[in-house]
């Protein structure tokens, strides 16, 4: 058996057709145990969440009208938490505040270069 056939045979053994997941094999107290491996997350839980290291950030592309005036393409704020559930909650609050501010700017009630009060996430 060559290396490609060996690898294919190993992949076939590691596939669980019932759950349609790969199975990781490990030894527990000398006994060979198998358990389904966790699928890796393929997309963010929130479209505006970004994780750098342990900390989550809110990141949203700015509209052209605003980005041309303030020289930034994205708004990025630290949510100051390593917890996903807390980050999602804070991201929702930041997004709501962002939408209110964007509406004011777009309707002409405020200039795009004025600086609102800093965000404090808690």
Structural summary, described in words:
It is built from three helices and six strands, in the order αβββββαβα. The chain is an alpha+beta fold. The protein has two domains: 3-36, no CATH class; 49-106, no CATH class. Strand 1 (15-16) and strand 2 form a beta hairpin. It starts with a helix and ends in a 16-residue tail after the last helix.
Strand segment tally? 6
Number of helices: 3
The averaged pLDDT comes out at 74
| Number of domain units | 2
Rg, Cα atoms, Å: 23 Å
Shape: elongated
What order do the SSEs take from the amino end to the carboxyl end, as H and E? Answer: HEEEEEHEH
Structural class: alpha+beta
Terminal residue distance: 61 Å
Tell me the major beta sheet: 3 strands, antiparallel
How are the strands of the biggest sheet laid out side by side? 1-2-3
Q: Please state roughly what percent of the residues sit in beta strands, choosing from under 5%, 5-15%, 15-25%, 25-35%, 35-45% or over 45%.
A: 25-35%
- Helix coverage percent: 25-40%
Query: What low-confidence regions span 5 or more consecutive residues with pLDDT below 50?
Result: 39-43
